[in-house]
Amino acid sequence: MNIQEILAESRKTGVLSSLDLSNLNLVGLDFSNLRVEGITFSKSNLTGANFDNSLIANVTFESSILKGLQLNQSSVNNTNFAGSILQGASIQNSGFSQCDFTNTDLTSINGESTHFSDCNFRQAKMFGAKLPMSIWSSVVVDGTRFTNSDLYRLIVQKTIFNKAIFENTNLTSALFNECSLVRQKFSNCVLVMAIFDGCDLSNADFTYHDISQSSFNDAKLGGAIFTGCSGSYIAFIKAEARQSNFTGVKFDMVNFSNSNLITASLANSEITNSLFENARLDYASFYSSRLDYTNFSNASTEQADFNQASLYYANIHGIRGAKLEDALQLNTAFGTNKKLKEAEDWQPIKELPAKKRDFKG
């Protein structure tokens, strides 16, 4: 039987299974609305083939040409795409579980609202990929390059990113939840309203990005680089950011409450109308920074450097041990170490016993 006869027979049962269709020219064939199981398409040419509305399981597309493939609204399980070329393919509203995309070329793929679960993307190419509103769960992204890609409102859960590259990529409103992005570098990306709560971003590089309305609550930011970043309404609540670098940032309305910024650099920056309440700022540097209208109430500031900083209308009440000698202060809520010590040592004056009056009758 030739391939056309095989497809005609499969239409009768709705199932195409247990066949070796490797090394064949299958350009433009229609496999839509079928249950495809146990098929080997290795090294075949499936350019423009249609698998829409299909159930695909235990299939091998290894090293196949899948340019312009139509794989929309389909369910794909335990399938091997390693080394295949999926340039310009459409996989919208499909679900992929336990699939291998190692060394797969996904250039210009269209995957809006696609769900990837327990998949491998090692050394995959994502040039010009369009995957807005897609969901990735427990995915491995190792050495994958995202260039000029659209990942708007991407949702990523419990995923490991290792040596991945994000450049010129739209991550607006993307949600990364409990992901590992250690040493991750972002280059000229759109990160507005992105959420990285609970992620490990140790030594990650966000240099010169607008991170307005983004959130890094409870994130691990040790050694992370935010040099030259800008934005407003950003949250770093309870972030672990020891030795992080915020030099030259321009922030307004940012919340660092209860964060750990020990030995962090925030020098030569503008951080106004912001909160550092109960933050750990020991040995941090705010040298020559503009900190107007910012609240440092009850922050730990042992040896924190505020010299040459502008603290107009800032609240630095309750901090101690900081270097404030050359700071510019105007109408600042401020209690000196001496005054705070006096307040702590203050004891109410005991009432003296009333002097007995001597009445003589």
Written description of the protein model:
With 361 residues, the chain is mostly beta strands. Helix content is 6%, strand content 17%. The protein has helices at 3-13, 337-345; strands at residues 15-17, 35-37, 55-57, 75-77, 95-97, 115-117, 120-122, 125-127, 135-137, 140-142, 145-147, 155-157, 160-162, 165-167, 175-177, 185-187, 230-235, 250-255, 270-272. The strands form 4 sheets. It has a 9-stranded parallel sheet. It has a 4-stranded parallel sheet with strand order 8-11-14-16, with no helix packed on it. The termini are far apart. The mean pLDDT is 92.
Residue-averaged pLDDT, rounded? 92
Order of neighbouring strands in the sheet with most strands: 1-2-3-4-5-6-9-12-15
Q: How many strands appear in the DSSP assignment?
A: 19
- Largest sheet properties: 9 strands, parallel
Element-level helix/strand string: HEEEEEEEEEEEEEEEEEEEH
Rg, Å, rounded = 30 Å
Poorly predicted runs are: none
**What gross morphology would you assign?**
rod-shaped
Distance between the termini: 137 Å
Helix count from the secondary structure assignment: 2
* Structure class: mainly beta
Question: Can you give the helix content as a percent range?
Answer: under 10%
Work out the strand percent: 15-25%
